[in-house]
Write a structure and sequence with these properties.
The relative contact order is 0.17. A hairpin with a 4-residue loop joins strand 4 and strand 5. The chain contains 19 helices and five strands. Helix 13 crosses helix 14 and helix 15 runs antiparallel to helix 16. A three-stranded antiparallel β-sheet has the order 1-2-3, with no helix packed on it. The chain has a two-stranded antiparallel sheet with strand order 4-5. It is mainly α. The longest helix has 33 residues.
């Protein structure tokens, strides 16, 4: 970029990767590059493990039906959120600010979202550690957990550009080893080689509570996948939005739930084992361990990426602490190691059930806000506002609907209302959140969506117009140029601030007085 001191440091831009900002067009990527990164998530072994766990616990048919449900429902939710993310250039954390939660209110979702990714990083890292231990028992599992947990940090240093390269070059090896593993396992004479599709545990039945419980367990993964795609879809080029929404919103769900899930059902029943890290080593030995390590590295780099973004958002909003995304990559990795050592893998089913309650409620209120409150009722601003200077700290519309629906959903999940409601707790939380969000928006007439409605003009301050037609304005606090959509005029300091500098400012909401 021309202009001496205004020149953007590309390496610094890569490190931060617009974790707290709207992604400008010059930082957008082709849809296939974004899909490539998202498929790193879809090929995680947790999806195979869930297929195995459900098949062994509730029967193959119930597990397959749950996987089909997750593929369809997760794909629809994923495409809806991917569309909004690609259109606005905002992550789901930033969208939540203007979609009913407010600036500080959305910190609730950011913090729980970060915890989810930390737990997933711990689960995937544990699978990797146990796989290596199964092949080399002399190395203690606790040591392997520490090593594999910290090994992914360097792979996350430069954001999406680095993730794209790692996923692109590792996918051929992943596919070859997976095919070899399936062929090798198919040749093995195992207890349920011939009846894996009809397998039912003792006392089990197709349908009923078993199926509902399997679907309930899957809801945690459905919710996280739907929200996760926004972290990547926001990088899709505007000219490729239609293809990008399908490639990033639906295809990863198809691979994760349908393909990986079915593979997990097949392996799990045949081997009588839920942990894919163990049955791939049993089938392939050394190469099974290599396959597991590669698979877990592919997913954990994305877990750290999304976890670090969520922590960056939370601490920027609540404590105005912004050491940079890379700092939070390290914090996320270290916390995941602690969770591994505490035995996170042993509590996968219950964790996903309660996670599904919160995530479904969150997705439902976002859908209610974008489709109904803004789309049909025309309450509040038509766009999704993310800049602190224009937002109330708390918007009761989203905060109340999220808290109430999550509390009721968790009570159901705790089996306080019987087995049926326990297995459908995530659906109930979503319906409550959706309806209550609309009711609250109508009751408040959208007055808490925008603290100040000011038509800001930066025409006199534009330093450059890039080839995409985006006008760049210098932030008078940090000295860097940003697109006008990410700038605002501070009425207190009488200066142009970027959205992040505004978020970090100690003056709070004094500009709104």
């Amino acid at each position: 970029m021309a202009g001496g001191t205004l020149k953007t440091d590309d390496k610094e831009e890569m490190k931060e990767d617009y974790a707290l900002r709207k992604v400008p067009q010059h930082w957008r990527l082709p849809w296939y590059s974004i899909m490539n990164v998202a498929l790193g998530v879809a090929t995680a072994m947790v999806f195979m493990q869930m297929g195995s766990l459900m098949a062994v616990s509730y029967g193959s048919i119930n597990a397959i039906l749950a996987e089909i449900y997750a593929t369809v429902f997760g794909g629809i939710l994923g495409m809806a959120i991917a569309y909004s993310a690609a259109k606005t250039g905002l992550s789901v954390n930033l969208m939540s600010r203007g979609a009913g939660l407010g600036f500080t209110g959305s910190s609730i979702t950011s913090f729980i979202y970060a915890i989810n990714f930390i737990m997933y990083a711990a689960i995937e890292g544990s699978i990797m550690a146990y796989a290596i231990n199964a092949y080399i028992p002399a190395i203690p599992v606790w040591l392997l957990m520490i090593v594999v947990g910290l090994a992914v940090i360097p792979l996350n240093w430069y954001g999406m550009a680095q993730l794209d390269k790692f996923q692109k070059y590792s996918i051929p090896i992943y596919v070859i080893l997976l095919v070899v593993g399936i062929i090798t396992a198919a040749r093995m004479n195992l207890p349920h080689s011939s009846d894996w599709l009809s397998f039912l545990p003792d006392g089990g039945a197709v349908g009923g509570v078993g199926l509902l419980t399997a679907i309930g367990v899957m809801n945690g993964l459905v919710g996280i996948m739907a929200l996760l795609v926004s972290d990547y879809a926001r990088f899709v080029k505007p000219t490729e939005r239609k293809m990008g929404v399908i490639a990033v919103g639906f295809i990863p769900s198809f691979v994760a739930f349908f393909l990986s899930g079915l593979i997990g059902v097949w392996f799990g029943v045949r081997f009588g084992e839920q942990n894919p890290g163990k049955y791939f080593v049993l089938a392939m030995g050394f190469w099974g361990a290599i396959y597991t390590i590669l698979t877990q590295l592919r997913i954990n780099v994305t877990n750290l990426y999304s976890g670090s973004m969520s922590l960056a958002n939370f601490f920027a909003r609540v404590f105005h602490f912004t050491p940079g995304r890379v700092f939070w990559v390290v914090v996320t990795a270290v916390t995941a190691v602690i969770a591994m050592l505490a035995g996170a893998l042993d509590h996968l089913g219950p964790m996903l059930t309660f996670q599904g309650v919160f995530l479904f409620a969150w997705v439902a209120l976002l859908a209610a806000d974008i489709l109904v409150v803004k789309g049909i009722l025309k309450l509040g601003p038509s766009h999704i506002e993310h800049r602190r200077g224009h937002l109330y700290e708390w918007n009761p519309v989203g905060v109340i609907s999220l808290v109430v629906s999550s509390v009721i959903g968790c009570m159901m999940a705790f089996n306080m209302f019987g087995a049926f409601w326990a297995s459908t707790s995530a659906f109930a939380a979503a319906v409550i959140a959706f309806v209550l969000h609309i009711v609250m928006a109508v009751a408040t007439q959208g007055k808490y969506y925008e603290a100040r409605s000011v038509e800001e003009s930066f025409s006199a301050n534009v330093i450059e117009t890039n080839k995409f037609g985006e006008k760049l304005v210098k932030c008078e606090k940090c000295g860097h140029p940003f697109i006008t959509e990410d700038m605002l005029y501070c009425t207190l300091h009488k200066q142009n601030y970027c959205s992040q500098c505004c978020a970090e400012a100690s003056c709070g909401t004094a500009c709104q007085a």
